[in-house]
Each structure stands twice: as structure tokens, then as C-alpha cells.
Amino acid sequence: TLETQGLDVPVILGGAALTRAYVEKDCRKVYRGPVFYAADAFEGLRLMQRIAGGESLAYGPEAEEADTIQVLHRGDRALPLTEHGQSAWVRRNEVRPEPPFWGVREVTPSLADLYTFLDEFVVLRQRWGYQQGTQDEATFQAVLREKAEPELAKWKARLEAEGLVTPKVRYAYLPVNADGDDLVVFDPAAPDRELSRLTLPRQASGRRLCIADFYAPLASGKRDVLALQLVTLGSTSAAFAQALYKGDSYSDYFHFHGLATELTEAAAEWLHARIRRELGIHAKDAANLRVLFSQGYQGSRYSFGYPACPDLEGNRFIQALLDGDALGVALTESCQMDPEYATSALVAWHPQARYFAI
To answer: In the chain, which residues have pLDDT < 50?
Structure first.
């Protein structure tokens, strides 16, 4: 729209559904003006201040491929669909794992559980903005050791002492089949009774993937297993963040918000790891956390709002099946989760299930 008006104003992109590599490698190609990626609101604000101040902004180094999740893009050669309307690329001879139970369960992880899966690299360098910049390696490591890491230790102790984080999770194993682009979920107590149906988007080209492809087709006559998960840090965390912001305690808000956001992701990682153990597919889990966080495991966890399933309406599907209200999680009119520090996902166990872009 901007280009049709003859404009090439700067554009700042960010949000949960975008990665730095996608913005800097793909979005820049389709817009003649400057395009920048902001990992969070604070980075966006810094960019806006520089733009408003008339600074000439230069692109930094492009995101490294090794640090990003590889996705498929439009324009690749299209593969045919099978007779069941699924991507021919996905194998159908996989043996389904057996879940330890059918239905929904609620568990309460500890803060220690979450810390096991906390990506401190992201907290310090991306959420809190500790960047090496022009510093030499020794100087930067000293900053991390003497300032950043003690700050993180202080906040961890405060969370524990003041009870600012009260994580809870609900998850389920449900019988499921794919019907073309639809996921059809059945009642574990009455396997022929349909509980819910969700239509998912499919790639128009390339491997023509749809998340439904990673589940057995309805015509096979064999039920597959769908895992769902929902995690929250609780209403106390959201209320505390709001109080800091309204009280103009911006430094504390900046630190708490960044840490709480990554603790929410840590809770999701913790629960996903539990699901993989219970399904018996955890042998492929990477020992190195940085590799694990880059899908170093079998299967995939898909959250709505991300490239494989960008429509947030899908959150209603998970909210209903897991009874998010019982966990204190509600959906806004735009299908965002409330309280803020919460996230949900559907989990595919299939070995070929990876992230991809519609």
C-alpha cells in the first residue's frame, strides 16, 4: 500500500509470528524502503527514536542461518497431494506412540523446573539488551559476569521470595485423525464421537504442508494421538507487571517483563519435554539446550499466531478442549490469551513434523 502511494518510509516489523531472518532476508526483498526487525517493544522504540531524530539507519549483518529456524518458502516446486488430501512428502508408515493416559491433566511445575529450560542467552542478550557491540570479547564477558548475571540472579531470588510466578499447566492426549486439512478430535471415552474439528492452512506450493498431514488420515481407520498443552505463569505475574508499568518503574518492568516472557516459553519447553518422555520419543532430545531450543527433538510444537498456523482463532480450539478457564486463562475478543504470560500449542509426534511457513 505504501509503495502504491510512491512512499518508501521506514517499516519496523516484529511480534511473535516473525523472526529476524524472515524480516531481514525475505521482507526486505519485497519493499523498496528501509525494513527493520524489532525483537520487542523496546527495540522498536529505540529504532523509532533514531528515525524521528533524523538519523541515517544502516543495516547490520544479516541474521545467521545457524541461529534461525529453517522454514519453507513460497515459490518452491509444488508436490502432489495424496488421495487423502495430504502432502505426499509425509510418510505414513510410522508406528504411533502410546500415551500414558487419555484425556486432560493439570500439573504444577516448580520454578526450578522452569529454570532448567530457561534460555538465559535470550534473556540477557535479547530481552535485556546486553550486546557486545564494539566491545572486545573479554570486556563483554566481564559485563555479563559482573552486571548481567548478578541482575538475573537477583530477579530469580525475588520471584521466589515474593511469589511473583505461580506456574500451572494443563495438557491432554486425545484421539485424532486428519480429514484433508481438518484435524478431527474424538472423545477418548467414546472413540466414534467427534469432539471438535479444526481447519488448518496449507502451503500453496513447495511441499504443500499442513499441520494435519502429520496425523493419520481418517480413511485409514486408525486413530492417531494429538497432544495439547497450555501453560501460564498466573495472574500474579501479569498484575505485578502492570503495577510496575503504571508506577513508572520502567527499569524493573523491563527486567521483569523480559524474564517472565522467557519463563513462559520455558514452561512450554518443560511441558513439551514431559510429553516427549511420556510418548517415548525423547531419545532424540539434544543434550545441548541451545540445540534443543532449535527443535533438537522429534516432532514439533505449533502455537497459533506463528507461520505454520497464523490465525489466532485456533486458540479457541485448544482453550475449549483443555478448559483453559479452569487454569485461570481466558481469551480476549481477538483470541489473545489473558493473563499475558500464557501460551498454548498442539503437539505433533511425527518425526517429519518441523516448523514451516504457510
So the answer is: 1-2, 64-75
Residues 105-109: contacts with CB within 8 Å, 24+ apart? 105/170, 105/171, 105/172, 106/168, 106/169, 106/170, 106/326, 106/327, 107/168, 107/169, 107/171, 107/274, 108/167, 108/168, 108/169, 109/167, 109/169, 109/267, 109/270, 109/271
Q: Residue 313 has what pLDDT? A: 95
Contact by Cβ (8 Å): 349, 340: no
Strands 168-179 and 103-107: antiparallel
Report the pLDDT value the prediction gives residue 63, as an integer from 0 to 100: 52
Q: Tens of pLDDT along 122-158? A: 999 999 999 988 899 999 999 999 999 999 999 999 9
Please give the single-letter amino acid code of residue 107: V
- Main-chain dihedrals φ then ψ at residue 197, nearest 5 degrees: -140, 135
Write down the pTM of the prediction: 0.79
C-alpha cell at position 14: 516484529
How many whole angstroms separate alpha carbon 168 and alpha carbon 70? 31
Q: Report CA 185 to chain centroid distance, whole Å.
A: 22
The whole-angstrom separation of Cα 112 and Cα 357 is: 34
| HSE value, Cβ hemisphere, 13 Å, CA-based, for 151 | 21
Quickly list H helices, 129-249.
137-143, 149-162, 235-246
**Sequence-ordered list of residues with C-beta below 8 angstroms from that of 93, at least 6 positions apart, any chain:** none
Q: Which residues pair with 226 in a beta bridge?
A: 174
How many CB atoms lie under 10 A from the CB of residue 356?
A: 20
CB atoms within 10 A of CB 187: 15
Whether 214 and 353 have beta carbons less than 8 Å apart is answered as yes
Phi, psi torsion values for 345, nearest 5 degrees: -165, 155
Question: Rounded to an integer, what distance in angstroms lies between the CA atom of residue 325 and that of residue 305?
Answer: 20
For residue 314, CA distances in Å to 60, 183, 302 come to 36, 11, 11
Which residue type sits at 17?
Answer: A
**Cα 351 from Cα 214, distance rounded (Å):** 9
Q: How far is CA 254 from CA 42, 43, 141, 244, in A?
A: 8, 12, 22, 9
